[in-house]
From TrEMBL, chain A:
InterPro entries: MetI-like (IPR000515), MetI-like_sf (IPR035906). Probably part of an ABC transporter complex. Probably responsible for the translocation of the substrate across the membrane. Residues 19-199 form the ABC transmembrane type-1 domain. Keywords: Cell membrane, Membrane, Transmembrane, Transmembrane helix, Transport. Belongs to the binding-protein-dependent transport system permease family. The chain crosses the membrane at residues 26-48, 60-79, 85-104, 125-152, 172-193. GO terms for cellular component: plasma membrane. It is a multi-pass membrane protein. It comes from Enhydrobacter aerosaccus. This is NitT/TauT family transport system permease protein. It comes from the Bacteria.
UniProtKB/TrEMBL annotation, chain B:
It comes from Enhydrobacter aerosaccus. Residues 4-237 form the ABC transporter domain. PROSITE patterns: ABC_TRANSPORTER_1 (PS00211), ABC_TRANSPORTER_2 (PS50893). GO terms for molecular function: ATP binding; ATP hydrolysis activity. The keyword Transport applies. It holds the Pfam family ABC_tran. Keywords: ATP-binding, Nucleotide-binding, Transport. It comes from the Bacteria. InterPro entries: AAA+_ATPase, ABC_transporter-like_ATP-bd, ABC_transporter-like_CS, ABC_transporter_ATP-bind, P-loop_NTPase. Belongs to the ABC transporter superfamily. This is NitT/TauT family transport system ATP-binding protein. The lineage of its organism: Bacteria, Pseudomonadati, Pseudomonadota, Alphaproteobacteria, Hyphomicrobiales.
Length: 220, 254
C-alpha cells in the first residue's frame, strides 16, 4: 500500500519516522496510564477510605473529554511530544482505572477467605490473590486503553505536534495529497491493530490459566 | 484443656435491607478435646456453617466467646485449616501451588515448597496432576486439593464444611476412608459439618446434633463403634435411630 507514496520523494522516507513518533507517543502515554491506573485502581478497590478521598475528584475529571485538554496541554508542555503523551495518558487512564477497580472489587470473597485461612496478611492477600484475580479485568481495561491511545495520539498530532502520522495526515490535506491522507489513515489502522495484537499476546500469556475456562478454550 | 471452647455463643445477623434480625445461634456451648472428630449434624439453616465460621475466625459471635488453645479467636489463622464446601482454589495456580499456597505466600525456595506439596498431593491421591489447573480437575479432585492445602499447614484444628456433599456416593465413601486414615495418622482435631447421618456416624468420635433455627446444641452423642465402621451393623443402626429421634424432636415441636 505504500507503493503510492513510495513514488513521492517527500513522504516515503518520512513515513518510518512519522510512524515511529506516533508509536512512541502511544506507548509512552499508555505505559504511564497503565502504571498509574493499575496502582490507583488497586488502592481504590481495596481501601474504602482511599476511595472516599479520591473518588469525587476522579469522577469530576472523567467526563471531561481528553481532547478539551489540548489548549492547557499546549500551554503547559509547548508543541512537542509531551502534550501528545499527556493526551494519550488522559484517554487511557480512565478505562484502565475503572476496570482495575471493578476487578479488585469483584474478587471472590471466598478466595480471600481461603488466603486468610492459610495465614495471609492483608498485604500478602493483595499481592497473591486480589491482584491476580483482577488481571482479567485489568487486561480488558488495557485493551480499551490501547484503542483510544491511537485515536488521541493522532488527534494531538493534528493540533499540537509537528511530527507523527497525525501531522502527516493533516499536512497532506493542506497540500491536497489525498493519497497520502488515505495512506496515513491506513497506517494508523494497521499500527492500532498491531498494538492491540501485542496487548492480546501478552494477555494470552499472563492469563494462560484461563484457556480451560472459556468456551471451547478460545480466547479473544 | 479443650482445644476448642465455645461458651454461650449467640449470633444474630442484621439484615439491613429488610430491617430484621436473624438469630442464627442462640446460646451454644461446646468443648472439643484434642484428637476428637466432631460431626456437626442438623437441619439446613440451623447455623452449622455459622458456628464453623466463628471457629475459623471469619465471623465474630454477637455474644459469648470462642477460644482455640485457650486463645480468643479474633480472626482467621494458619493454626486452623479450613476445607470449604466449594473447593475455592486459586484458578490461576496449578495444583501444587494451590497446595503449597501457605508456603509460597511467605516466599522462600520454590523447589523445597514443591517437594513439601508433593507429599500431600500423593497423600490425597493426586499424583500426576501437580501441574494441572483447577479448571482441568473434577469436583472431587478439586476438593482433595483443598484438603491437601489444609493438611499442609499442619494445623491444630481442621474445620470442614460439608466437604463431600458435591461428590458421588462412591467417591465420597472413598474420601471418607481417606480422611479417617489421615486423621488417625496425624492426630488432629476435626470439626466436620454434615447433614448426612450416615456420614456423621461413619466418621466421628462424637456427633453433635443441633436444633433448627435459632440453632442450639440438642445433644452430644459419643460414638464408640469400632473402625472401620460397618453401616449395616445393629449397633450402627441403634445409634442412627437415636440420632434420628434427636433430629425429629424439632419437627414435631415446630
Ligand atoms: N451473612 C449472613 N447474613 C445474614 N444471614 C445469614 C448470614 N449467614 C447465615 N445467615 C442466616 O443464618 C442462619 C444459619 O445459616 P448457616 O449457613 O449457618 O446454616 P447451615 O446450618 O450451615 O445450613 P446448611 O445446612 O443449609 O448449610 C440462616 O437462617 C441464614 O439465613
Ligand atoms: Mg452450611
Amino acid at each position: 500500500m505504500f507503493g503510492t507514496d513510495g513514488s513521492t520523494q517527500t513522504y516515503s522516507g518520512t513515513w518510518v519516522i512519522a510512524a515511529f513518533w506516533s508509536t512512541l507517543r502511544v506507548f509512552a502515554g499508555f505505559a504511564i496510564a497503565a502504571a498509574l491506573g493499575i496502582g490507583l485502581g488497586i488502592a481504590i478497590g481495596w481501601s474504602r477510605r482511599f476511595e472516599i478521598i479520591v473518588e469525587p475528584t476522579l469522577q469530576v475529571l472523567r467526563p471531561i473529554p481528553p481532547v478539551s485538554w489540548i489548549p492547557l496541554a499546549i500551554v503547559w508542555f509547548g508543541i512537542a511530544n509531551k502534550p501528545a503523551i499527556f493526551l494519550v495518558f488522559l484517554g487511557t487512564f480512565f478505562p484502565i482505572l475503572l476496570n482495575t477497580i471493578h476487578g479488585v472489587k469483584t474478587c471472590d470473597r471466598m478466595l480471600i477467605r481461603a488466603g486468610a485461612m492459610v495465614g495471609g496478611t492483608p498485604r500478602q492477600l493483595l499481592r497473591h490473590i486480589v491482584f491476580p484475580a483482577a488481571l482479567p479485568d485489568i487486561f480488558a481495561g488495557l485493551r480499551i486503553g490501547i484503542g483510544s491511545a491511537w485515536m488521541l495520539t493522532v488527534t494531538a498530532e493534528m493540533v499540537a505536534v509537528k511530527s507523527g502520522l497525525g501531522y502527516t495526515l493533516w499536512d497532506s490535506y493542506y497540500f491536497m495529497r489525498y493519497d497520502i491522507v488515505i495512506a496515513a489513515m491506513i497506517s494508523i489502522g494497521l499500527l492500532g491493530y498491531g498494538s492491540d495484537f501485542l496487548v492480546r499476546k501478552v494477555m494470552a500469556r499472563v492469563l494462560h490459566w484461563q484457556h480451560g475456562t472459556t468456551l471451547q478454550g478460545e480466547q479473544g | 484443656m479443650p482445644v476448642i471452647e465455645i461458651n454461650g455463643v449467640c449470633k444474630a445477623f442484621r439484615d439491613a435491607k429488610r430491617n430484621v434480625e436473624v438469630t442464627a445461634l442462640a446460646g451454644v456451648d461446646l468443648a472439643v478435646e484434642r484428637n476428637q472428630f466432631i460431626c456437626l449434624l442438623g437441619p439446613s439453616g440451623c447455623g452449622k456453617s455459622t458456628l464453623l465460621n466463628m471457629i475459623a475466625g471469619f465471623e465474630r459471635p454477637t455474644e459469648g466467646s470462642v477460644k482455640v488453645d485457650g486463645q480468643l479467636v479474633t480472626g482467621p489463622g494458619a493454626d486452623r485449616g479450613v476445607v470449604f464446601q466449594q473447593p475455592t482454589l486459586m484458578p490461576w495456580l496449578p495444583v501444587w501451588e494451590n497446595v503449597a499456597f501457605h508456603l509460597l505466600m511467605r516466599g522462600g525456595q520454590k523447589g523445597a515448597h514443591r517437594r513439601t506439596a508433593q507429599t500431600f498431593i500423593d497423600m490425597v491421591g493426586l499424583t500426576g496432576f501437580e501441574d494441572h489447573y483447577p479448571a482441568e480437575l473434577s469436583g472431587g479432585m478439586s476438593q482433595r486439593v483443598g484438603i491437601a492445602r489444609a493438611l499442609l499447614m499442619n494445623p491444630r484444628v481442621i474445620l470442614m464444611d460439608e466437604p463431600f456433599s458435591a461428590l458421588d456416593e462412591q467417591t465420597r465413601m472413598q474420601m471418607q476412608g481417606e480422611l479417617v486414615r489421615l486423621w488417625q495418622h496425624h492426630e488432629g482435631t476435626v470439626v466436620f459439618v454434615t447433614h448426612g447421618i450416615d456420614e456423621a456416624l461413619t466418621l466421628g468420635t462424637h456427633v453433635v446434633v443441633m436444633s433448627a433455627r435459632p440453632g442450639k446444641i440438642r445433644a452430644v452423642v459419643p460414638l464408640d463403634l469400632p473402625r472401620p465402621r460397618d453401616i449395616t451393623s445393629p449397633a450402627f443402626n441403634d445409634l442412627k435411630r437415636y440420632v434420628l429421634e434427636m433430629l425429629h424432636v424439632d419437627r414435631s415441636n415446630s
